[in-house]
Structures are given as C-alpha cells and as structure tokens.
Amino acid sequence: MKINQFIMEDRATRFYRFLKHAISNRPFDVKVIDYVKSYPFLKITINEHADRTILITSGIHGNEPCGPLGIIHWMLNNNVPEDVRVIIIPMINPSGFQDNKRRNMNDKDLNRGFRRDIKPEDEIYFFKKAIQKESVDLLLSLHEDHGHKGLYMYYADVDDQVCKDILSRLSNIIPLVDDETVYGDKVEDGLIYIADKNKDPKHAY
C-alpha cells in the first residue's frame, strides 16, 4: 500500500483491514450480518463445536478504540482457547468509530438502545439478529474509560466469582481502579454490581 493511500484511510477502514489480517487463514467462521454504511457488521465464531460459549462485544462507543484493537491483538497473538466457543462482535458502531465519536451516525448512544420500548437502531437490530439463537454462558462487553484510571467491571449476576477470577488475572497487567465510586456507583475490588436492571438510561456505562 502506498503511504498516501494509508493516510487517506479513515479509522474504520483501517480497523477492518487490520481485522482481515488477524482472521486470515484462521479456522474461524466469519459471517456478515449486514452493513452499516459500507462497513460490514461481523460475527466471528471460534471453536464452533465447543460446549461453553463466551460472547465478546466491542466498539459500541466509537471513541473507545481499545476494545476493537485489543481483540485484533488477542487474535494475532494466538490467545484463543481450544475448549471454549468464542463469539465475537468486533465492531458494533463503525460509523462512530470512523468519526471518533461515542454515538453513531444518527447521534444515538447505542448502549442505551436495548430497551424494548424504543425502536432499535440498525446496529442493535443487527446485534440481536446475530445472537438470537445463541446460548451464551458469559458476555463480556469491552469498554474504555477516559475518566478513571484502572480496571473495573460492571456485572449483573449475583454470583461474582467469574468476574473476580477475570479481574484477578488482569490485575497483573492493569491495576484495578482505586476510586471508591465510578460515576456514582460503589466499587468493591474493581467490581460494580448492577442490582437494578432498570437503572436510569443516562447512566455512564
């Protein structure tokens, strides 16, 4: 690729080029669910016949590139377990990613778009279409926080042991957040429990 062509690429196009490199010649099942603008809404499945399933999503906020780029890094370094089925939705909001904005091209925060009483944006419709027949044991939604230093997790299951195990391993690489609260929510050892599933939709996560 010529250097001037690389410079002219937008962020989303560059991301998809890097992603294509990461999944090329790998035994992954890659499906195009639909398109957002000209960008493919992808579902990537690894180890199709494994018993347990983890769903990993990223890029729902376009100004949080660490999740999508981290997935590429994870794939390139062969950090894919063989005994777990992994479903990846690597880029939920390509238009926001292209413009480095939290919201999508319709100025909607997609992370507020899962309520049943509102018409979903196309990206949320594609996401639901991609996973509607899946039985998922664990969902990881990757985000990036510009307002707090350190790692933390929101969780909604009363059993927090899986989250504790994840944070314990990751804390060797990234320190846990040392704030007592994050956006008004109490933090205990990096964990934030969302007991009320009907919280204010303006909530920060």
Plain-language structure description:
The relative contact order is 0.14. The chain is α/β, with parallel strands linked by helices and 205 residues long. The chain has a 5-stranded mixed sheet with strand order 1-2-4-3-5, sandwiched between helices. The chain has a two-stranded parallel ribbon with strand order 6-9. A two-stranded antiparallel ribbon has the order 7-8. The longest helix is centred in the first third of the chain and has 13 residues, at 11-23. 27% of the residues lie in helices and 20% in strands. The protein is globular and about 45 Å long. The protein has 6 helices and 9 strands; from the N terminus they run ααβββαβααββαβββ. The model has no long low-confidence stretch (mean pLDDT 90). A hairpin with a 2-residue loop joins strand 1 and strand 2. Helix 2 packs parallel to helix 3 (66-76). It has helices at residues 3-8, 11-23, 66-76, 94-99, 122-131, 161-170, and strands spanning 29-36, 39-46, 52-57, 84-89, 138-141, 153-155, 181-182, 185-186, 191-193.
Question: What topology emerges from the helices and strands here?
Answer:
Layout: H1 3-8, H2 11-23, E1 29-36, E2 39-46, E3 52-57, H3 66-76, E4 84-89, H4 94-99, H5 122-131, E5 138-141, E6 153-155, H6 161-170, E7 181-182, E8 185-186, E9 191-193
Parallel strand pairs: 3-4, 3-5, 6-9
Antiparallel strand pairs: 1-2, 2-4, 7-8
Helix pairs in contact: 2-3
Main sheet: strands, sense, barrel: 5 strands, mixed
Helix content: 25-40%
Name the helix and strand elements from N-terminus to C-terminus, one letter apiece: HHEEEHEHHEEHEEE
Radius of gyration: 17 Å
Order the strands across the largest sheet as they lie in space.
1-2-4-3-5
The best one-word shape is globular
What is the tally of helical segments? 6
Average pLDDT taken over every residue = 90
Number of strands: 9
- Unreliable spans: none
Q: Structural class, from helix and strand content? A: alpha/beta
Amount of beta strand: 15-25%
How far apart are the termini?
A: 38 Å
